[in-house]
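Posting for a labmate who doesn't have an account.
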Amino acid sequence: MAFPTQTYGFLKGISAHNEKAWFEAHRELYEAGYVAPARDFVSALGPRLRETAHSIQFETNVGGSMHRVNRDIRFSKDKRPYKDHLDLWFWHGERKSWGYPGLWFSLSATQLRLGVGMYGLDKEGLETFRHSVVHPRSGKALLAAVERVAGAGYEIGGKTRKIAPRGFETDPDRAGYLLHDGLCASLTLPPEAAAQPDIVEAVAGHFAAMWPIGKWLLEEVSN
């Protein structure tokens, strides 16, 4: 399957006219270009992802793998009511949780962003992550996973700190990961990539290539 022209029409429109009046006037475009193709995409991609990791979960509905188009503006200075991108999420476990690595697909009018990993670890998860970086066995496994993924051309992210946390020291080849508050692999593609007929196969391939990062997190941080 491929995302249709209506998808780009809606994403471009909501980016230029991020207001309720435009959205309501183009609700049919939202259904045809946003909801319907996203549901079909999740339905086609989900089973393919389980070939990489059998524990990956997905739901085709809005609020499941498909994030809502409405923005939560209660505590945000940005009061635009709608997202200008389509976000899809695949997770581990019986319920969605940020405590496990996930896979995400984010399509806007200007780019397609794919990623695997964990952003913004909570206090307990961050503590576990740091101990895993320092430990010789898991630290070595981390370097192997990063080498494999980065060597395939994917970006490694999650570094947010300038100073290492107190109480944690390790070898120079791993010390940089103590500056992370999360760990992920990602890839940015032109938006037209989602319109290609082989998009499901392409995304499944990228997620599989980035999965060593998710696998390490699942084994060393989430458990």
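Reply:
Got it, the structure tokens are right above this. The beta strands are 56-57, 85-92, 102-108, 112-118, 155-159, 180-189.
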